[in-house]
């Protein structure tokens, strides 16, 4: 709400252009109706930003790329992939023997892109949910035996999925398990689950403040803070693209 008020205040103060930088787009998972009478909250947020007076939105790793189509204004969706690749090469000595894993089928495109650029294999985990934030069953597709497994996902909330996936990977023979996330929401039991899970590290970007959670969980690393993207300021002022 504060963001909407600030956008509107700028607009009615005769600002020629208002750019909203929203690193973690709110309600991004509610991008479609998955059951009768369910809201499409991401579309509502897009409408509210437009009505408030925003001319341009900059965000990071949208949960669903089609959210960009909810807007009638310019949207730049930045990607963490370059920073993810850099972190893997610089911090995992055995990265040439790694396998990139998606904790769900929806992330297959993301992990195949990273695996192709690293010239390594990929795997994915198919999950069946009983209800939101609870996973009933997981099936691993791919061979992780005697390899370093690197899970990559756009976000983790209560962390039930990635922690169960880590257990599954260790049971399947993985020697180490890492998780790399763009948005570390870490709500509810997330911290205790990560502390109990067999992760070497859970690496996140700075789209959400993590200082307090890092104190409670030494496995969380804030190592993707310096994302490999140009500074947006000069491009915004000239109405150019920042991609």
Protein model, in words:
The chain is an alpha/beta fold. It folds into two domains: 1-78, Rossmann fold; 80-222, Rossmann fold (3-Layer(aba) Sandwich), CATH 3.40.50.2020. It has eight helices and ten strands. It has helices at residues 2-12, 41-52, 81-91, 108-118, 160-171, 190-196, 211-216, 233-237, and strands at 19-22, 56-60, 74-78, 98-102, 121-131, 134-141, 148-156, 176-184, 201-204, 220-221. The strands form two sheets. A seven-stranded mixed beta sheet has the order 6-5-4-7-8-9-10. Helix 6 links the parallel strand 8 (176-184) and strand 9 (201-204). The chain starts with a helix and ends in a 6-residue tail after the last helix.
Q: TL;DR?
A:
The protein has 243 residues and is α/β, with parallel strands linked by helices.
Any idea how many domains? 2
Task: Determine Rg (CA atoms, Å).
Answer: 19 Å
Assign the structural class, choosing from mainly alpha, mainly beta, alpha/beta, alpha+beta, or little secondary structure: alpha/beta
CATH fold type of the largest domain: Rossmann fold
CATH class of the largest domain: Alpha Beta
Global outline: globular
What is the terminal separation in angstroms?
A: 28 Å
Mean pLDDT: 90
From the coordinates shown, what is the CATH architecture of the largest domain? Answer: 3-Layer(aba) Sandwich
Overall number of strands: 10
Strand order of the largest sheet: 6-5-4-7-8-9-10
Residue ranges: pLDDT <50 for 5 or more in a row?
A: none
**Number of helices in the DSSP assignment:** 8
């Amino acid at each position: 709400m504060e963001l909407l008020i600030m956008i509107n205040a700028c607009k009615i103060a005769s600002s020629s252009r208002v750019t909203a930088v929203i690193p973690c787009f709110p309600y991004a998972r509610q991008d479609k109706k998955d059951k009768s009478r369910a809201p499409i909250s991401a579309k509502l947020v897009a409408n509210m930003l437009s009505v408030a007076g925003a001319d341009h939105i900059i965000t990071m790793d949208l949960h669903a790329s089609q959210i960009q189509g909810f807007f009638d204004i310019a949207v730049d969706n930045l990607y963490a992939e370059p920073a993810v690749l850099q972190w893997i090469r610089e911090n995992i000595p055995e990265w040439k023997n790694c396998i990139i894993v998606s904790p769900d089928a929806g992330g297959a495109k993301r992990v195949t892109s990273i695996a192709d650029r690293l010239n390594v294999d990929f795997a994915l985990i198919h999950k069946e949910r009983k209800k939101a934030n609870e996973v009933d069953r997981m099936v691993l597709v791919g061979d992780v035996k005697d390899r370093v497994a690197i899970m990559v996902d756009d976000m983790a909330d209560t962390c039930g999925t990635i922690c169960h996936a880590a257990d599954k990977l260790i049971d399947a023979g993985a020697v180490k398990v890492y998780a790399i996330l763009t948005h570390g929401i870490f709500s509810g039991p997330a911290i205790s689950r990560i502390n109990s899970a067999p992760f070497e590290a859970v690496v996140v970007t700075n789209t959400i403040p993590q200082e307090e959670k890092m104190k409670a969980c030494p496995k969380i690393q804030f190592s993707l803070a310096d994302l490999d993207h140009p500074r947006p300021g000069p491009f915004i002022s000239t109405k150019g693209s920042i991609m």
